[in-house]
# Entry
Amino acid sequence: MEQRTESEDRSLDQDLMEAIAQGDEAALGQLYDRYSGLVYSVALRVLRDTGAADEILQDVFFQLWRKASQFDASRGAMGSWLVVMARNRSISRLRRKSSVEETNVEEIAVAQPYRMENSLMAREMLAKVRGAMDGLPPAQRDAVELAYFEGLTHSEIAERTGEPLGTIKTRLRSAMETLRMKFA
Amino acid sequence: MSNANHIDDQDLDLLALGALDAEELRLLQSHLSGCADCDRRMAEARGRMSLLAFAAPQETPSASARVGLMQRVKASAASAEAPAAKSAEDSAVAVRGSFTGAQFPTRREWSLGWATLSVGLAAAALLLWINNGRLDRELQALQKNTAVLQQKQTQNQHLLELLTAPDTIQVSLAPMPGHPGAPARVQYNQQRGLLMYAGTMPTPPAEYCYELWLIPTAGDPINAGVFYPDASGRATVMMPSLPAGVAPKAFAVTIEPEGGMPKPTGAMVQLGAVS
# Structure
């Protein structure tokens, strides 16, 4: 599995999705095994509750099962798409409201050049992302985590931390600039 | 917004991050709906931001989550046959129907018959091949489910052994001064290396977890599992992997960075000595 190229990997996801659209439960199991760790980790980080994270994990893959025929591989990478779904659902549940960018997540495009399923390359990506986050000044890192894992907006972060709104905006912009360069 | 009325990358990243307030959000979404270039770059921004998922501690979901999903899928799929399989079956029926004529065939009809038969055989072979692959995958899924159920059964057997064995000891853990939480208890069987912890704890600080330790009569503390309380505060550790035959002096719970540590590093929040 570790030896697959990027295009082979995308192709495998696409093949699995086509099989799932035909009602192939084993294909769903394979896709689950590839991405469940990542989806669960995001849900658990947002919700901090293993039971609730389990529910989000099942909901995301059940939604994928029901909407497999609508998944368009040209509109995004499977791993990113699942992460976006998991995060949005988790934050909605956490805050009991839809505070995230889109609600109809099945229709959104997510361009992602990196592999995110359980693989050596994903582990390298994990180290890269953690390195980038660790390299941010603590205040910037906290602001990014409050936005990403708790779904807080600029104003809400300012209110939570007691910092001026302008300061929070500057921090997040600087953090985004740094992360964009490091993820490139 | 900048660059000839296009949205700049920073704003797209902030939008994907979910950090924009309602008014900014409305303005950008309004532009995105009519700008293919910004929409394409927005997809890239979502991809970048989705990488932040890796900043979460990577955890493994419980085996029961997979079983639950597959049960839910089976329940939903029970009423729906895969359309492809049905159409393939229809084709096979149609081919079979072409051989039911009562008149003896002419030479031309024989040729046509053989050609039809070949097509029919090919279709049947294809159908069998598809079914075979599907059955193989179903078998693999069943084997995985069986493994999960066996694991659960083994855990239940161990729990029963732990709770009924005469040499199982029960140790009460009390909160350390200055730390909230109610007393907890550990049941431990030294001969079998079986352990269960149950307690009620507050949520640990962000990016931290609780870690249970078996403190032996000789040697370093042994990690007996990392845990988080559920929404109601209940916390359990069931059958962690422990060596058999370790004589305990005490059990303790510390606060450790997410994922746990090989040796205790954080504050001790509960302690219970073996009497």
